[in-house]
Automatic annotation (TrEMBL):
Alpha-2-macroglobulin bait region domain ranges (all copies): 651-790
Organism listed in the record: Geothrix oryzae
Region (Disordered): 128-153
Keyword annotations from UniProtKB, A to Z: Signal
SMART domains in the record: A2M, A2M_N_2, Thiol-ester_cl
Protein name: Alpha-2-macroglobulin
Amino acid sequence: MRWFRPLVTLLLPALLLLPTHGTAQKRGAEAPWREGGWTGAFATLRPTLPGKAGQLEAAGPIPAEARIRLYRVEDPDTFLKKVLLDRGNAVAEGARGAQDPLDVLREAVLWGGRRAFVTVHRTASQGLRDAAKQTDRLTSARTSPGKVREGSALPLEGQPGITFVTEIVPRIQEDLTGKRGQEDDESGDDGFLSRVELPAQAAGLYLVEVIRGSDAAYVPWLVTDLALLSEQDGGRIRLQAVDARDGAPRAGVTGQMLEGAKALALAFDGAGKAESPAAPGVRRVVLVRSGASFAILASEGQSAASVRQRLYAFTERPLYRPGQEVFVKAILRRVEDGENRVAGGVQALPFTVLDPEDTKVAEGQAKLLNAETGTYAAQFNLPGAGRLGLYRVVFQGPQGPGQAEFKVEQFVKPAFEVKVTTGKTKVGLGDALSFHANARYFYGAAVRGAKADWFLYRVVPPKVRWIWDDEDSGPAPELMESGQLDLDDEGQADLPVFKAESDGLWRMVVKVADASGQRNSGQAQVRAAAGDLVLMIAADRQVALPGKPFQVTARALDLDGKEVPGVAIALRAARIVAQKDNAYWWSRPNALKPGETVASAPGPQATLTIPEGGAFLLVAEAKDAKGRPVTAQRQITVAAEGTPLPAVPDLRAAADKPEYQPGDTARVLVQLPRPRLTLHWALEHEALGQRQTRLVQGTTALVDIPVTAAMQPNVWAVFEIVAEGRRQMVEVPLRVPKRDRRLQVAVTTDKERYQPGQPMKVSVEVKDASGRPAPADLSVGVVDEAIYALSQELHPDPVRFFHPTRRHGVLRSGSTDWSFHDLLRRQRPVWSLKQTKRGEFKADDDDKVRQNFKDTAHWAPFVAAGRDGRASVDLVLPDNLTAWRATATAVTADTKVGVGRSSKPAAKPLQVALALPRTLSVGEEARAIALVRNLSGQPIQGKVRLEVQNGRVTGSPEGAFSLPDQGEFRFALPLFSDKTGPLTVTARVEGGGLKDAERQRVTVLDQLVPASMSGSVVLDGGAQTFTVPVPPGAKGEASLVLTPVGNLEHLAAPSLPYLIGYPYGCVEQTLSSFVPNLLVADLVKQGAMPDLDWKKLTDLDRNIRNGVFKVYGYQQPNGGWGWYAPGDFGLDANPHTTGYAIQSFATMKRLGYTVDEGVYRRGRQAAMSLFQQAARQADQASGQGGQGGRGRSADPQADAAFLLLSLAQTGEPVAGLVDSAADKVLKGAWSGNHVLAMTALAAAQVRHPKAAALAERLEQRAVLKGGLARWEGRREDWWSYASGDVVPTVMALKALCLAKPQSPLIRQGETFLASEYRGYGWYSTWSTSQIVELLPYLMKTRKLDWGPLAIQAAVQGGPAFEFKERPEARRWNAREPRAGGHLMAEPKPVTVTASGRGLLVWTYAYQVPGSAAGVTKAEASSALRLSVTRHLWKLRTPQETGNARQGWIRQPWTGTLKAGDEAWMEVQFRTDRDADYVMLEVPIPGGLNPTVKLEGFVLEGKSFTEEGASDTWMKPRVEVHSDKVTFLFHRTWSWNTHTVRILLRAGMAGTYRLRPAKLSLMSNEGQWVTSDGLDLKVQDGGAR
């Protein structure tokens, strides 16, 4: 069950925190011990006031027999310094090398923690330390057995410097708090909490020892009335010593700050204050003392808080194709005191371009444009065949990097856009849902008379969110209605009207196809609510004074946010009635209800006065058009200094306004949990502020803060108290926004409408926020509007980038929060980062052929706007029929910034637009479509003509038309090409004295289909030379991949630690642990393998003894074995474990070990009984043509064969049984390679005459590929006899070693098994142990060679390789050459000379033309068990079936579609092993348009989300190329069938070839497989 591995990875932090039981015995101080025993998951007590009882908490139950002892540390000052200063030494890291009696205590202090655990007479392992650092919940703990270390247990009793205080019998209180009332708790913890009260003590340091039997846990406990507050920025730390009871400043304090091994003295003044430099990123502990009280505070040190640089970069457009040129501009500022300054002296900025896999694809230097404004420009070319997706260009500034993002895709620009509008974006329940569709070309013409499919969805928000869901994840939209209609001559249509039957989001999607077959969509959505009116209420302050008036304003809005006049609104202030229905009522706004009215007035605007202090609700009340009540409310606090307010459990604070301007006074109301507390507060942003302290007599305080310009754009008012030993803090943000930083940028052009190729003048006018002209540095880009229809701009708002809110750069902490675990805690930084009117046309170069099509018409990175704020650029438009968007970005020397945009269309009065297939292969037929449009304002008669180069059309190349104004004529001819290269089509139109011509190109390819051949060379120490000839018909690039495979035996020995270290529990795993050890030990005794350092592996005798007795204990009453102990999973014996057990006992007896004869005899009897039962079931299954069923084995034939093999190895007289089984296998009654192999092995064991026939059949069944031989099992059952291909191959090799030792398949099968090595062993303990058990059999055929891999190979005229290990798997974007790989620009013969020992597999990969090759599936001749299948269905749409809820319905695939039809493709694949970096390439011919974002698609009632293109655990990255869709999987699993889905739409008529889908392992280029190819015909005349 491979799914278990990732599950364990997810659960490991939780599993590490579960209690475990051990067998530790009480030992002396010097007695050896092994890490791993019971662990008490106790929380470290927080500092406690003297005279107050402590609370010892534990996750889970505390054993009733536990005892608690309390010890006092006599010299805590010395002890704490020793602990804190030595924490980096080996003794604290867990090596336990020293014999200091305080080692265990130091361990408890260092690695214990409030939200962690305390160790048990042991040293914390790395896994436990990691778990402690990562968790923030009090959960229980489990130790990991992964690392075993020796050490000494050191009991406390009698240790010097530690005094016994008392022993108590704990009175345990248990609390099942858990998730009650916490639906959003995702911890997975059931919340079981136990508490024990500890008796009050005087000030000092104590150690709590929890004893259960011979186990113990330690918890440190600090009793003190001293507290310490700290605040730290990037350079200083400020400390305040206070009384832990009320927070009053504490005098007479001494202390030290410990950094590593250094102790720095701290000077505290009479008010308990101290300040010291503090470098960022340094872990430090502050230890202070006042009398007998201590306070400890840990801090890692805040990183340098101030932002020193801002580097803003942007590209001229958001989207590019591979190979295109990218233009980018950067603006650099250094930051001083929060203000942006031009960085002088920087002449260039280095940059690097990274693809979606963070692989560098380009680099260079951005040159300085303007030193006064600090701007830079660069340009670079994208690779022509790189990855698709999101790219980054990263600039390196003097103080760090900055970046711009852009997309690289293979896209077809849309010619038109579809806009869906609605009268109201919000409606009430039962109100009408009305939508309007409008489809227009970007240059303004209507898409006349087109078919429009519409779909009405209801979007339901997710009710439950899993912790790994994406932010936007949720259920798929529910398709409610669908239909089809025709657009009118203006390209518009009113859609059917529906009622909003339920609340939620209603989405209308409209898909329109024009005459060329291009399809685009648009959508609009309406939110339905339970009313048609919304009230908004606001006050001019959040905190009001008692008896003082304040202004309240209410507004009535419709559901679109428009104000509704004339609505009667009543305003009132009311007391609060709280619905405390659960512990979290205060977090729900609807839990606060208005009670008694204390002030009222008619609205919508009024002045209210509340005479008394307290918390109140402001309420606005009205009725909507249907008489339904509508209310709005907000909370307001009324208080003056000392005003009694409702009691609060924690410190709270609120400002009276949401934002301020310089000159205002901010009034902050602070509520304290009890009177007579000292309030500490400061104003902070990125550095320390001035700390202020005041004693508050009551429970409320008003703090007045004058607002200055230095507080722009924001600061934090931070308030702290310490009460009854507990520190509390609250932060109040004060916003003081800057309002003069955005420039007004107006972009205009010299014309409202253009023709392609005409000159354009773009004028820019820049003004500041007050409307005055502003000189500025401008960049001007003119980009095809169709680009923005595919992707919006990706760069952030420059105003927000350069003038963000300041982050809070002060780190605060307190000693009352201290847990000893804080020594390890690292502070991790938190990063906050058109419709156009028709105009008059003028003839302009009518004879010109339009062929200069660009996405960017013009880019000027620097244009200077003078003092009048004006500038202009001149350009000549390309030949696109579109609209052009001009974008101007302005920046001034004082970093005022702004962006302006303007869009203008470009078209001709009589124009022709060509549509060609996006891709075309040799031998395919497509269409050349010319769309003629008359935009002249009058009727036109004329002709259109097509001219083709490097191809041909059938039929007359000329057509006549008669078009009214705004009319359209479609002229289409079949298009062919019989040779590769650029195919050029020119369309010319003439009529009414007007002309136009357009030329387009498509590259014709003879798409290559992969093929390969392979072989192998066995090397026995000498040199061999072989030549690989050029395969027939090979074209294009080719490669030779050499893969070395070492001997099987040198992989088996390193697998023994895996077999030993596995956390065994079942019978099979236990046997797999010690039986291979027996065999290896026997080989060592025979001198067949080198001596092993058994100390590194295990105590062999103990391992065997413990394992045997464990298996004895697992024997069932009937003599057989199940998977676990009797009763765990029933009393039925299992054929697999029973057979394996008696095989193991037989091996032990053969090697001279003692076996319990009674257990052995009963086991053989049970195996015989199970064999007879399995054989009967196997015969019945064979006769019935099936297997399984109630009470039956899933594979009875394999059960019978395995039991027969096991009995044969025990020496039982089974010759007759073998004879019968051999007949059944040879006649095919018992099927399967694994059954054949086990039966052949049984026959060979007993020297049966039919063993030779079975061995011959084995040789016939072998699968030979690339010099490797394997016997295929069932990949679904990797844990059983079949075990994929590994165990059947092992069984077959054992049989051949006995029955036909001279078979060449033995060496080839060995090599296959070696190639399957996983780095630690093979797929499971079962398969690994079987391979180890194969070694004695191999000794019968050859001498074992335990040497490491050592093979040399040299390619004549090419590279040479020396292999000392197998080449590692590679990432798919790896640029370094693969070890053993030789790339060739064209196929050619290759001669290789190889030497060494082992087997060298070679694979010659090449390609053949798709037009010449068949369409059948293929695979690399050295490919392992890879498979890929493609399934296709024609779809009936909801418009055709009339059943929107069912959506699209699949119909059988016939290979023929009509233009506009839709089809569904599913590609399924499997790999024989877990694989990294798998690529699935699905070719898509030019006549089909693929869709992989499936949101809104409903297949036979199943709705899909946007990522519905695959159902794998780890979603692939999907790239849509012009001729294929590529799915890139970082990881696939062998037990799973992976499925990808593509929705297809037939767009262009013709005959095409669906080339085979290809699955390849990118970490190993020699492994790939393809599906079948198919032919496709798309016919004209589709209804859609």
